[in-house]
């Protein structure tokens, strides 16, 4: 029986709603803006979209602070706008995933407001993690945990108790040991499933359960706090990450999803230490997918990337799970800037993308990745991210600048907004129009043309390629990914050159005549694959 579920081999496009398209001219992207651009995404060749949070929210963390999980914030539109988006997407054969934020709510959620109004020890407080402080008069936080955005993870309320927030103080953590919380989230899941969504992206999916007694971090753990996200992955366990009880939540969510038509799914945003920990979220009675952040974080080395792929399959195959591949999202520096300086970064971003599109499983693209957008150096006075406001680095605004759609600005922020609109919520830098979809349209050498072609080829080959993959790394420089074709159809070899010198095709048994796609016109030259490029070859 062929697997007809929509998500195992899908390509999903992440829409950071605030920055995608603004229909009403307030300078902030919205749902009607998304709907207006869905034909562009269908033409790009993706299978699904993931919408970042558009729910009622004071926007302390740009929507990851939800005050009503079952309504749309007026900033982004209405529930009717959501329904229209969903109908239009389904009409274009695009699946729609929404973001669910179960670790914390907004401090303006009715439950949290009720908790503040109620006394310590009340039923209202028991939905969150309120505790008495330590030291004289309880003036010290209950433990030494630090917020992910910097500073203590606790804020004191007027009656002297403290509440836990692993992120901004406007994002109080729920107490998932309280059955009311689980029941409420089942209601939220069903609300969106009943409306017709195809899946969920689960925010901080590894954080909901905290170790009993909320124990202090050790001195060593504490010293490692505050590092870059990319460095902290893989560190020793924390009493608030990846606790065993988390999996009980997903067993329940699995059965909620299964109540529908058998083809709804959820993907975990779980920054866990290794592929084995990731695969625990993918056991048959848990979630369908988890972001494979080890791919995103791997250094630019064929050996390192090969190990990530091998570990991923070694961990996911035994539980019967499908892997995912991701290079960019709204929390990390854009790949075109992260992977190297000058022309090297953009070249590597294309090459990394082509390699991940060659792997079995599902791929996640972040808006603007198809345009090759660079990270923007947002001026300090323009920065909005709570990570910056709380003193933890420059923040994540640089990958969230509103998309350019047209070459000319014309008072529309390069087509992001309608004419006469307010300024975009983050300023676009000079020259932003050169990256626009319009500027790249019709240019065969553009990133947009490259991504469209790669997605089309991937789709065409999907049914004939084996989901088994053979890998080898040549002299630590090149990663070779090989998948056999089914009877009568050609197989695929993807070569990614991470090294500093060209790799001859003859050394790999390949021929320039068999190139299906390459990351640039000169990637395959002199019968060799040049550094920082990748190409697909058809093999018989
Ligand atoms: C992960 C989200 O991707 C990020 O943007 C957000 O700040 C945190 N979770 C907190 O919700
Ligand atoms: Mg708007």
List keywords for this structure.
Immunoglobulin-like; globular; 3 domains; TIM Barrel; alpha/beta; Oligo-1,6-glucosidase, domain 2; 540 residues; 21 strands; five-stranded antiparallel beta sheet; eight-stranded parallel beta sheet
Polypeptide structure, described:
The protein has 540 residues and is of the alpha/beta class. It contains 15 helices and 21 strands. It folds into 3 domains: 368 residues, Glycosidases (TIM Barrel, Alpha-Beta Barrel); 55 residues, Oligo-1,6-glucosidase, domain 2 (Alpha-Beta Complex), CATH 3.90.400.10; 74 residues, Golgi alpha-mannosidase II (Immunoglobulin-like), CATH 2.60.40. The strands form 5 sheets. The protein has an 8-stranded parallel sheet with strand order 11-10-9-5-2-1-13-12. A 5-stranded antiparallel sheet has the order 14-15-16-21-18. Strands 6-8-7 form a 3-stranded antiparallel sheet, with no helix packed on it. Helix 1 packs parallel to helix 2 and helix 4 runs parallel beside helix 7. The longest helix is centred in the middle third of the chain and has 17 residues. The relative contact order is 0.10. The mean pLDDT is 96. The structure holds 1-deoxynojirimycin and magnesium ion. The site of magnesium ion has 6 residues, from loops. 1-deoxynojirimycin binds next to loops.
